[in-house]
Amino acid sequence: MDGNGRWAKKRGMPRKMGHSKGAEVFKRTVEDCRELGIKYCSFYAFSTENWQRPKDEVDALMKLLDSYLDDIQTMARKNTKIIFLGDKAPFEENLRLKMIETERGSAENNGLHVLIALNYGGRDEIIHALRNIAEDIKNGAVNTDELDEQLFEKYLYTKDIPPLDLIIRTSGEQRISNFMIWQGAYAELLFTDVLWPDFTKKHLMAACVEYAGRTRRFGGV
After folding, report:
1. Hey, which CATH number is domain 4-212, 3.40.1180.10, 3.40.50.1220, 3.30.830.10, 3.40.50.720?
2. Is 132 a residue of the active site?
C-alpha cells in the first residue's frame, strides 16, 4: 500500500494525513474484495525497515494502528479471519494484545481471510522459520531427511495459506520490497502509478481483469 506520504505531500499535508487516508482505503478495499468474491487478500502495512523512518512519523503510525486495530476487530464480526504476519514483539503491549485477541476471536471464521503484514519482512520471515526448524531438528522433532518445501512452509507466518496469485504495487515503484519472497515466487506482478490513497474498486477490478488474461505456466510450457 505505497504512496501515502507522496499523496499527502502533493496536497501540502503532513505525511501522517496520507497514512490516515490510506487506512480508510484499506478498509474499503477489504470490503471490495469481499464483494468480488476474493477469498484471500494480503496487505503490507508496516515493514521491518519502516522503524527507520522519522520518530514523529513512526509515532503517528503507531497511534493510527491503535484505531486501525479497532476497525479490524469490527471486520472480524463479518465472518472474516484476520491473520497478522510479522513479529509482534516490538509493538507496545496494548497493540500486541489487540492483535492476539483479534486473531483468536476470528480463528474459526471461514469467510474472507485478511492477512496484514506488520513489522514484516520476507527475509526476516525466512530467517525466523529457519531458526525454528533448526530448534526442532536439535530437539529431535524434525529429521533433516524430512525437510522439503511443504515442511518449510509450515514454519512461515502464512502456514496453511495458499501462495500469492497476484501482487499489486501502487505508486509507480516497480519492486516487491521484501514482501512475501517465498509465497510470491510465482505471483503475477502488477505495477500501477496510482498512489494508495487514490486506489479504488475500479483499480482493483482492472487488476483482476489483467490477472485473468495472463497465462500462468509455473515453469512449464
Report:
1. 3.40.1180.10
2. no
Query: Is residue 205 within a helix (H) or strand (E), and if so which, with residue range?
Result: helix 201-212
Q: How far apart are the first and last CA of the chain?
A: 33
59 given a catalytic annotation: no
User: In the chain, how long is the greatest CA-to-CA distance?
Assistant: 59
To the nearest 10°, report the CA torsion of 115, 210, 191, 218.
70
Which of 32, 50, 148, 193 is catalytic? The answer is 50
DSSP state letter for 156: S
Q: Which one from 2, 4, 32, 119 is the annotated catalytic residue?
A: 2
Q: Is the pTM above the cut of 0.70? A: yes
Mean pLDDT along residues 70-99: 92
d(CA 198, CA 192): 11
122-157 pLDDT, tens digit each:
999 999 999 999 999 999 999 999 999 999 999 999
Distance CA 3, CA 1 (A): 7
Cα gap 176→47, rounded to integer Å: 12
At what angle are helices 15-36 and 201-212 packed, to 10 degrees?
A: 50
